[in-house]
Amino acid sequence: xxxxxxxxxxxxxxxxxxxxxxxxxxxxxxxxxxxxxxxxxxxxxxxxxxxxxxxxxxxxxxxxxxxxxxxxxxxxxxxxxxxxxxxxxxxxxxxxxxxxxxxxxxxxxxxxxxxxxxxxxxxxxxxxxxxxxxxxxxxxxxxxxxxxxxxxxxxxxxxxxx
Length: 162
Fold this sequence. Notes:
Distance between the termini: 26 Å
Helix content: 10-25%
Structural class: alpha+beta
Low-confidence stretches: none
């Protein structure tokens, strides 16, 4: 469901803004199969996959000769989607894994029913917490996990209703 446009009053009149909705978060990965396996084991559903290339892809992404494998995954509640990309051309650029305090894309976060079960699933994929599991004000147990391709994945289990 898309909300209506935002309307805001100012001293000089009313400003009407366009409709906007978050569609998905795109993440470039080294190995799309490993990333799909990780996220589907956590509970996301693979909605589809494709290979994209052509002039439209070059223009949209801003890379000449853009050619990538893509996969779309959805959260069980239907509210969130991840779009994974594995570049065939141009070659993917390896970088150091993002640190939590770096500017830019930070992490993807998921609410889970059982953080210990989620950590067991992550461990089966060789993915472990950066430090450990913390408790925030008796409301949440949470951790950052280094996921496939170095992606930071936050897992949070609600302990009680706020």
